[in-house]
Design brief:
about 100 residues; mainly alpha; 3 helices; extended
Length: about 100
């Protein structure tokens, strides 16, 4: 099941198109299992376990890490006018 879930998430194919000959089980079963495991909080626990093992083995390479708003709280509100960085030499003409 786990490999079937990873296969669908990685390839982007529809759950019902998961090839039976790969031996991962049916796509619908994998989909149901993903939903159950998500509801049970399996993924955050698995993530923490993997990170701990990688840190313990000194095998965690953060040189290619990326941080986005889904993991770090993004502050709301537009920047003040004096905080906005210009990308050009002069202000563009309004088209409205």
């Amino acid at each position: 099941m786990f490999q079937g879930i990873l296969f669908v998430l990685h390839t982007g194919i529809a759950w019902e198109h998961l090839p039976q000959e790969l031996g991962f089980g049916s796509g619908m079963t994998c989909w149901r299992r993903l939903a159950e495991w998500t509801e049970a909080g399996v993924w955050p626990r698995l993530h923490q376990t993997l990170l701990a093992k990688l840190r313990g083995a000194n095998a965690l390479d953060l040189s290619r890490a990326a941080v986005d708003g889904s993991h770090i709280r993004a502050l709301k509100g537009a920047p003040r006018r004096d905080e906005v960085l210009s990308t050009g030499v002069e202000q563009a003409v309004s088209t409205t």
